[in-house]
Amino acid sequence: MFEMKEKFKTGILLIDREHEKLFEIGERAYQLLKSPYDTDKYDKIVEVIEELKEYTIYHFKDEENYMESINYKRLFTQKMDHAAFIEKLEGINLNKVDENQDEAIMEILIFLNDWLINHILEKDLLIPRK
Ligand SMILES: [Fe+2]
Ligand SMILES: [Fe+2]
Q1: Which domains does the chain have, with CATH numbers?
Q2: Which ligand is nearest to the CA of 84?
Q3: How many whole angstroms separate alpha carbon 96 and alpha carbon 109?
Q4: Given 21, 30, 36, 52, which is the most exposed site by the fewest CB atoms within 10 A?
């Protein structure tokens, strides 16, 4: 489901590599949803959410630094988008996750998929190479 395709490439090595990692984390969450014999996925879900949060913060920082270094005019819009994404991740209610685990992963996956694809295609692809 999550795969770094050619069309997502910005041509900026650092950014592409980090996006690839985000897709990898997404794919891991997807595999978690698909593992029917795993009856209690709570710990793994929390782990994947934490990793996603940590890595996203790391990636946004790098991306924003890069944009700053080239005086990119759309930096502000990017920052707003990035902040909204982190806020959404931080707003995940872990108690709710435990109540209905599969539904919770599903929701995160849909959100991540939409966001990654839309943000990368509509915003990150516009960032010029140095
Ligand atoms: Fe990005
Ligand atoms: Fe971005």
Answers
A1: 8-126 (1.20.120.50)
A2: 2
A3: 16
A4: 36
